[in-house]
Amino acid sequence: MSLCTSQRPKMPDSSSSSPPPCSPIWLLPRKKLHFFARIRRFLRLKAARKRCGSSGEFNLASAKGVNNEVVVQALEMESEDESAVLQRSVKKLHFGSWLEKEMAAKEIERLAREDGKIRKFLAQLGVIPVLVAMAASEVAAQRRVAVTALIELANGSYTNKALMLEAGILSELPQNIDTVDELTRREFAELLLSLSSLANDTQFRLASSKTLPFLLSILQSGSNVETKELCLGTTYNISTVLDHAGALVSSGLLQTLLTLSTSKELSEKALATLGHLVVTLMGKKAMENSPMVPESLIEMLTWEDKPKCQELSAYILMILGHQSLTQREKMAKSGIVQVLLEVSLLGSPLAQKRALKLLQWFKDERQANMRPHSGPQTGRIAMGSPEHPREAQEGKKMMKNLVKQSLHKNMEVITRRANIAAVHSSKLKALVISTSSKSLPY
């Protein structure tokens, strides 16, 4: 016996409180299926809109009044078209003409940029060796599209980077940068920076005979700052491996880094690389023999607007001066003590700590020069000896004069900065008073 009668129900009276007649039971599963089908279509439509939302070809605004089934079918066709584009691009890259290869490389770059999973899939289809070969093309347009495609394929993928190195991308770097334009230089430098993240992998030697000449030629050329920063980032990554220090120093890179460190725009990255090289025996000797050391490093200690450069230069000076009386004497003659006093007062916490450590060395050496040496003495008496009170008094006066001169110099620096700050403060106060007084009623 059914719950509902098969007869047509009567319309309920408005005054009646009885519930409305129920639908037949066999309609309930059909309604559920219809409801879940609509939900499924909505979710598919939303996912597809997210994929192609940037193109705006199938948005809801343009789909008003169009059947949902038609929109879903169109989106599915678009997804099939993307798969067809991928297949067609890979086929043309392998077997097409040079013009077709160029267009295929552009499509591969776009697909790799939009989806990380496609990058792995493209590498499995063997596009990397073909793109590496295109990177050596003499045609600038073909070379550029190949390098930009490789940059996108290398983004966040260790496997793809390893495949590029195995395919010989380092051998395809232009050795004469004068033959390539600035944009191509930058793209090669960006690709090389991405590949340099594998510097710690002993399987790949990035400090090769092909890589270093390319980096040096850009760093020594008139390339723009952005391109040089990319190359400095590569040298930094390579210098993190101590086994590469010999190749880097023998190539003449150290002197180039010292020259670039004098530029405030490039100084921080150049000093960071020098900090890796100076801890090696070969790097330390090369820096000690450089005519720019220690004067250029002492000059960087005065860069108050570059605290990181102050910290790095103080670190390098500490490594050079450690157990080297000759280097400390050169630093003293270059006026490092006065600069260290300023850094110890006004530098960053780390720079202050390193400056105080250097100052302690110079203080200890000054005291050691006044102490008697072991063995028979010939005319040098310890300061303060009761046998020669006059010499003791002269030594004390000399030390007092040195302290007074140092304090006087520091007070001049502090006073000069305070005066500058006061001038700026008074100008600002006068400006505020002049502008605010206009609004007063009297």
Structure summarized in a few sentences:
With 442 residues, the protein is mostly helical. The chain has helices spanning 27-51, 68-95, 98-114, 116-124, 127-134, 140-154, 158-166, 182-195, 211-219, 225-239, 245-250, 253-260, 267-277, 281-288, 295-300, 307-321, 325-333, 336-346, 349-370, 389-436. This is U-box domain-containing protein 7.
How is the topology of this model organized?
Blueprint: H1 27-51, H2 68-95, H3 98-114, H4 116-124, H5 127-134, H6 140-154, H7 158-166, H8 182-195, H9 211-219, H10 225-239, H11 245-250, H12 253-260, H13 267-277, H14 281-288, H15 295-300, H16 307-321, H17 325-333, H18 336-346, H19 349-370, H20 389-436
Helix pairs in contact: 1-2, 2-3, 3-4, 3-6, 5-6, 6-8, 8-10, 10-13, 12-13, 13-16, 16-19, 18-19
